[in-house]
Structures are given as structure tokens and as C-alpha cells.
Protein: Short chain alcohol dehydrogenase
Amino acid sequence: MPKTAVVSGGARGIGRTLARYFLEKQYHVFILDIDEQELTHTTRTHLKSYYDSKAVDSAICDLRNTDEIYEKIQQAAKFLDGHIDVVINNGAPFVVSQACIPFMKNEKDTAPVTDDSHSTAGPCIINIGSFRAKQSDPNQEGYASAKAGLLGLTHSMAVSLQPFGIRVNLVAPGRIKAGHESKEGDEKGVEWAHLNEDKDVEDHLTNRAGRPLDIAQAVEYMVNAGFVTGQDLIVDGGAVMIK
Structure:
């Protein structure tokens, strides 16, 4: 039986990369987003082979509307055969998680582990934050404080969801060039390399800006890291170390 994932805010950018990456890892994926044009393109054109094989589906969802989120998660759970293994929150992390939890609980993941051969990573929630929670440019008070709040939400959820065997972690992207991950990018043949500038080399110890794939690989680590919960992982090419 394939593992399953819900990705909120997955129609374009990093969210689209995450949906595609986990489909490539043989997951079945359900995507939520408010942008109907981008979501339709991503689901039925960009991911056509997965859509045709019924590995991916999606729903238009206003992630500011609690009732709508619960309704669309019911739709997601039905598509995913009633069980959700992974929730990747690229938007509305608290409400999306609360709606998904009933479909994530697994009694075998709450029992004490005494035999390593039977230990699994179990269900998990990954919140997508930002390196701006820990480093700011001028006049970013609102954005920085919101992203810092996600750190508190993440470790609080990790404690609260321990009885259900659900781990909660956060991945904090830095400057990720993701404009090519879109309908327009596909139609114009834009690639990641086209988006880079000299400043991207200067601003990163890794001598480049970030790729959406960098975030997907970090999320995959958190999904499989069964002894990691309540943590945040900054993926920013060392940008927070420069200033």
C-alpha cells in the first residue's frame, strides 16, 4: 500500500516541487491551493502521468477558511483511502494539521518501542517556515515574527501530538529560486539556472541560491527521521551565518 501525503499550498513554487518529489518517491499525494489556474495546470498537465494513474489529486481551497479546510481534507482522506501518513504545511499549518490528525493516528506508533526491528518513523507533520525567523533585514517585523511563531507552533504541536505517535518538525528555507515552478515557467521553458544572479553567489556560503529540490530533500529527511520531533532545520546555504 503506497504511503500518502497532503501538501497545502502546493500549486506552484516550493509546494509544487514537494508534491512532485513525493510522487516520485511512490507516494499518493493530495494538493490544496486557492489558485485554480495554477492548481489545475500542476495536477492535470505538469503531473499528468501521476494524475492519469490516480496517484495525485487536488482541490481548490481557501486556506484562510477553517470550514473549507476541513471539508477539503475529508475529500483528501477519501482519495487517500482514509489514511494520511505525511502532512506538509506550506500554508495554514495549524488548521490543516488539526483537520488531518484523525486520519493520521496509528495505535502501533504510540506504543513503547522495545525492538528496533519493529521501529518505524510513523506519521508526521512538516511545517514550512523561513530562515527569517532567525535573521532579518530592515522593516521585516511582521514577516519575521510570524515565521518565528511557526517555531513555537511546531514544538508545541510535537508535544501535544506525542500521544498519537505523530512527529512534528519544521523546515526553514532561505532564498530559494522557485519562479520556474509554475504554469508560466513551464510554458516559457524557464529553468532554475536562468533565475540566478551574481548577488546569489555573494549572499551564500554555498556560492549559489537555493533550489526547491534542496527543500524537498530536507523534508524527506524529516519524514524519515523517526527520532526527530519538535525541531527546525534551516536550509539557507549558510545565509544566516553571514550577517
The mean pLDDT is 93. The beta strands are 4-8, 28-33, 56-60, 86-89, 124-128, 167-173, 232-235. The first helix runs from residue 13 to 24. The radius of gyration is 18 Å.
